[in-house]
């Protein structure tokens, strides 16, 4: 899911998209994985079926008027149909998440046989069609019972419960699943949920723009982030001790990564950009690779930043076999210049980071510009600063108005640009091993419901049968993956005329 952190002090800039040189699937390594993604709450529906109980996401989506995932794409019933579409599309891999409360309705303890059966069948279906599953263990959907019982991610008890949930996933699905992401976009998850208050459980300090029922934006994001790192590391250790020698999979954490570049060439903006890299990437990457938080965060946050004990530091360091990257857009960074009329007065993650983020594109329409160099920059930065770890791009995609057209040419251009950026990074030594389009089909989106979507398949949400229809992007991806399409705009035009002749919405 794309989670936008709505920083309120922004300017708007429009960039012209430039295209990469021609390339094909065959320019990538054979074992590179091209796939597409989804998550449980956004795709499955069936929220009251088969013994599933509510997660914090159900509670949150029912408390606003944006829409909810009660039915979503009905993947819970339509998974066979969707796997067939994936196979026709030529997907090499599919990324999805396990609903914690479908598998363990009480958050801990007994396993729900119907939930187990659903995921086993789904994974078998993928395997039978030659599609590699990439499983996200946790995608924002904490059992509501654990939130109520002890405050979820703010309490260290979550580490034990998360590890026990992961244990069930490894034991039950690990013979067929070789790629595990513990926690989805942990960085922005902590920020959106505990600093902004935009995502469940919706905590924040009061401000001019939003009042949450509870929270503290200057402390909670760091506490939740700390517990996420420890929970990830604990699950990873368990995997390595108990399963890895037999199952031979790998396990990683994923972070949200804006493309970052200084707004001007002033020294102040360059320093601000380094600080933003440390807050947005280093916050999680430095502990995972080097065992501790970035110095600049320790200095600015003081006692608000939790401390790793020696043992915890050892546990976290080296716990991620790969880094998962969620990337959608770039921002320019400039040193924070408080604007009293706009800026919230509260202390939060962004005021701690001390930068203004300048979005590229029309933010009011949520139509940010494609900036493939931003992703190239992220991959290059991680290569150079964090010992070139293996990377999977776990989400990248283009949001458009839902149902506006099947001819999503700008989405195809976006995908071409970004896949080209990944190729450039690989050519320059980045160990990037996979790329997943967000999303396989139109989904329920946390911040926009059904208004905007990212799917390569259109879903008619007003149709009782939730009919799926391929967009231009689906045909383009198929052609790219089967090697018949070279990345050049004339191929898009040919596809475009084919789709307008053959498909109706
Ligand atoms: C947040 O916590 C800090 C540190 O404990 C405290 O100084 C501050 O008053 C709290 N802010 C809110 C809004 O509760
Ligand atoms: C939040 O609460 C504060 C203090 O009660 C108030 O000044 C502010 O206007 C509220 N903000 C919103 C968005 O309601
Ligand atoms: C920034 O760029 C301008 C215009 O290209 C140049 O004149 C100036 O010397 C540069 N400043 C720094 C600090 O590099
Ligand atoms: C952004 O979208 C708004 C709303 O439709 C429109 O008024 C504005 O002109 C657009 N700005 C740019 C830079 O395209
Ligand atoms: C390519 O990698 C080298 C060595 O890490 C680095 O110095 C250079 O800046 C990179 N080039 C680009 C375009 O990122
Ligand atoms: C969606 O489905 C409804 C109900 O079946 C139908 O009336 C409508 O035309 C469909 N919309 C599109 C864009 O296909
Ligand atoms: C390759 O993809 C193109 C474009 O979607 C499609 O027309 C063609 O049938 C596919 N070829 C094979 C061999 O799958
Ligand atoms: C368009 O359709 C024609 C006829 O069905 C097919 O030969 C051609 O390969 C298609 N073009 C693309 C780019 O898929």
Automatic annotation (TrEMBL):
Its EC number is 3.2.1.21. It catalyses: Hydrolysis of terminal, non-reducing beta-D-glucosyl residues with release of beta-D-glucose. It is an enzyme of class 3 (hydrolase). Gene3D superfamilies: Glycosidases (3.20.20.80). It comes from the Eukaryota. Transmembrane segments: none annotated. GO terms for biological process: carbohydrate metabolic process. The keyword Signal applies. InterPro entries: GH (IPR017853), GH_1_N_CS (IPR033132), Glyco_hydro_1 (IPR001360). Residues 1-22 form the signal peptide. Belongs to the glycosyl hydrolase 1 family. This is beta-glucosidase. It comes from Arabis alpina (Alpine rock-cress).
